[in-house]
Write a structure and sequence with these properties.
The structure is a single chain. The protein contains 15 helices and nine strands. It is α/β, with parallel strands linked by helices. A seven-stranded parallel beta sheet has the order 3-2-1-4-5-6-8, with helices on both faces. Strands 7-9 form a two-stranded parallel sheet. Helix 1 packs across helix 8. It starts with a strand and ends in a 10-residue tail after the last helix. The model has no long low-confidence stretch (mean pLDDT 97). Bound molecules: NADP nicotinamide-adenine-dinucleotide phosphate. NADP nicotinamide-adenine-dinucleotide phosphate (NAP) binds next to helix 1 and strand 2.
């Protein structure tokens, strides 16, 4: 039995599709809203709530970010789990000074020390982060962003899922490995907007902002530290490690990584006018 956390999210839904036909449980906080036949309820911030979901599980796909990962890992071990696939972040390698990267590294270390079989996935920024633009695209056909000509190798979440499926279904072959994952090519914000416009069949306006203007927009809905980290990682403080395309998706899955354009075509519906 495999337990997929984050099952209703970008990676999770793609991973469930990858694992179709295998014994899988899909963790969610609310099974009535998840619309998943494999759904089981549990809350990663309350590790005791996971005990029934973990019962009989051999492999755990674990998203990072909820704060109680160390206890989740301990409970997984006590429940008889053999292998954990952890979604960490490439920033552990490229921007280890950032608070989120330090936290990711601490969870990676707890997993490595746990005695469980482990594999760590360190993806770069997701193509799906552009969903942040969806309301403004729907309402005004506009994207407002800084650093619009910085190219980064954004990854399609389905490629993280494809790597995870290979690891979860042949865990011993991947135990003790840490995989840095990127998309197959760098793509700028300008190119992402062009791909979305093409997928939508609609002109979009790209308004280039200064860092200060972008920060003012972002801090209306996120804390300043998170806004600064995102601005650094999307152009203000990029480095060779963040810009470099990695071949790991192809090495693990045997197929080429998906492009941003493919992501845009597959997700155009999220950017369309309501009622159009
Ligand atoms: N976005 C990036 O650029 C980026 C880059 C590197 C790494 N990452 C990592 O990738 C992961 C995000 O993946 P994603 O985009 O697939 O996720 P997502 O689409 O943001 O979905 C989050 C998922 O987590 C579940 N969840 C949230 N809080 C939970 C809780 N307390 N207990 C149980 N489940 C909870 C939600 O399920 P329910 O609502 O159904 O409960 C949902 O399925 C994170 O670990 C993040 O650190 C992201």
């Amino acid at each position: 039995m495999i337990l997929v956390t984050g099952a209703t999210g970008n990676i999770g839904r793609a991973l469930l599709a990858e694992l179709r036909g295998r014994p899988v449980r899909a963790l969610t906080r609310d099974a009535s809203r998840a619309g998943l036949p494999e759904a089981v309820e549990g809350d990663l911030t309350r590790p005791a709530s996971l005990d029934s979901a973990l019962d009989g599980v051999r492999s755990l796909f674990l998203l990072q970010g909820t704060g109680a990962e160390e206890e989740v890992i301990s409970r997984a071990r006590r429940a008889g789990v053999d292998s954990v696939v952890l979604v960490s972040s490439l920033t552990v390698e490229t921007h280890p000074h950032l608070p989120a990267a330090r936290r990711n590294l601490a969870v990676e270390q707890a997993l490595r020390d746990s005695g469980l079989g482990w594999t760590v996935l360190r993806p770069t920024q997701f193509a799906s982060n552009t969903l942040w633009w969806a309301p403004a695209i729907r309402e005004r056909g506009e994207v407002r962003a800084a650093y619009v000509d910085v190219g980064l190798p954004a990854i399609h979440p389905a490629d993280i899922a494809a790597v995870a499926r290979h690891v979860l279904t042949s865990p011993a072959a991947h135990h003790g490995r840490t995989y840095a994952l990127t998309g197959p090519a760098v793509v700028t914000v300008r190119e992402q907007v062009a791909s979305l416009a093409e997928a939508l069949g609609r002109d979009l306006t790209l308004t280039e902002l200064t860092r200060e203007q972008a920060r003012a927009d972002m801090t209306s809905f996120m804390d300043p530290g998170t806004a600064d980290a995102i601005l650094d990682l999307t152009g203000g403080d990029v480095n060779e490690g963040l810009l470099r395309v990695r071949g790991t998706v192809t090495e693990v899955t045997g197929r080429a990584g998906r492009t941003f354009r493919e992501w845009a075509v597959g997700n155009a519906g999220a950017f369309q006018f309501l009622g159009s």
